[in-house]
């Protein structure tokens, strides 16, 4: 049963990745393209001098560059294709985590049915919302702390948030709930690595809109993943009996 649950997680995650890709192209991709114009120096914030070289002329606007324009179109298709593939693989990984979480939840003595909405909100809280509180999604050109420090803090935050929710929901006792709350709050009390202080290269309103849209798309993706997972495996939402836990496959 565990293998079936995990394979269902991969399929549900792939479905969620395709849905997220649609929203990515309409809501997020235009903001990334706009931020890249600030990153290259094509656009500059008012009152801030740019020390970046002037951008090269756009070959699509220059006559006699049909071949280069076709090459840019091919590059765009490759970029979009890689974006879709990356999202599918990423959400398939999230689906594996969701399937593993359901397996662990079913093994708890007090484990019962878990609604799709609850499963989706837990996944969103652990892997999207909790890290974004101190380390919001970043656009190209934004100043950031060292990558290794951010990755370490992100992994620690996700792990501690997941453990905190597991303790609070699984132990069903006040010491367990307090321990879970302490784990959830710990990374935020410690704080994420701070970027160096410098003049912003990207408009703050553009960065805020990007973070809001990324979180919104992630919420939609998690809800789709949870609904697809429990639709593919309706028995996963309920606690298995003793025979079901030992049933092979």
Automatic annotation (TrEMBL):
<dbReference type="Pfam" id="PF09490">
    <property type="entry name" value="CbtA"/>
</dbReference>
<feature type="transmembrane region" description="Helical">
    <location>
        <begin position="153"/>
        <end position="171"/>
    </location>
</feature>
<keyword id="KW-0614">Plasmid</keyword>
<keyword id="KW-0812">Transmembrane</keyword>
<keyword id="KW-0472">Membrane</keyword>
<protein>
    <submittedName>
        <fullName>CbtA family protein</fullName>
    </submittedName>
</protein>
<feature type="transmembrane region" description="Helical">
    <location>
        <begin position="178"/>
        <end position="198"/>
    </location>
</feature>
<keyword id="KW-1133">Transmembrane helix</keyword>
<dbReference type="InterPro" id="IPR012666">
    <property type="entry name" value="CbtA_put"/>
</dbReference>
<feature type="transmembrane region" description="Helical">
    <location>
        <begin position="114"/>
        <end position="133"/>
    </location>
</feature>
<feature type="transmembrane region" description="Helical">
    <location>
        <begin position="210"/>
        <end position="233"/>
    </location>
</feature>
<feature type="transmembrane region" description="Helical">
    <location>
        <begin position="82"/>
        <end position="102"/>
    </location>
</feature>
